[in-house]
Design the sequence.
């Protein structure tokens, strides 16, 4: 096909109508194919197939961020540091050298494994990483996951 060297708008320079006729030719939005997304199922279908293949149809569901629960995490190293303070405040117990603590009552939902543990601690939590569970068990303690008992 021959390449157009000049654009139509350049060489179409008539006296009054510039070659577009007398009444409303080349004016308004008739050449535009509609407003907005008009024609995507009709005369712009080939455009949709090429440039926006996922435009139509259902694409899953995303829960609103306000209702997605965000885990509140604490590391085993932080528990090791704060446990004496929590025992004095009555938030944790000590029996026969074994510390017992329910971190859900302190507002935490997940136990992470960063830090060191030197004491025997029994921790109740909703979630825990494998690393955290291993560190607590190596120190002689135990992790009780509260969600396992639920139904």
Sequence:
């Amino acid at each position: 096909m021959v390449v157009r060297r000049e654009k139509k708008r350049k060489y179409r320079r008539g006296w009054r109508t510039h070659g577009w006729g007398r009444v409303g030719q080349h004016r308004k939005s008739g050449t535009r194919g509609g407003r907005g997304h008009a024609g995507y199922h009709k005369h712009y279908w080939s455009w949709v197939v090429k440039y926006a293949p996922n435009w139509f149809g259902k694409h899953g569901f995303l829960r609103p961020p306000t209702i997605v629960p965000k885990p509140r995490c604490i590391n085993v190293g932080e528990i090791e540091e704060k446990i004496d303070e929590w025992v004095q405040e009555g938030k944790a117990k000590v029996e026969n050298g074994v510390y017992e603590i329910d971190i859900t009552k302190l507002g935490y939902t997940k136990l992470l494994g960063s830090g060191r543990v030197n004491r025997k601690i029994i921790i109740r939590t909703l979630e825990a990483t494998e690393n955290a569970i291993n560190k607590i068990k190596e120190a002689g303690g135990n992790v009780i996951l509260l969600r396992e008992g639920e139904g």
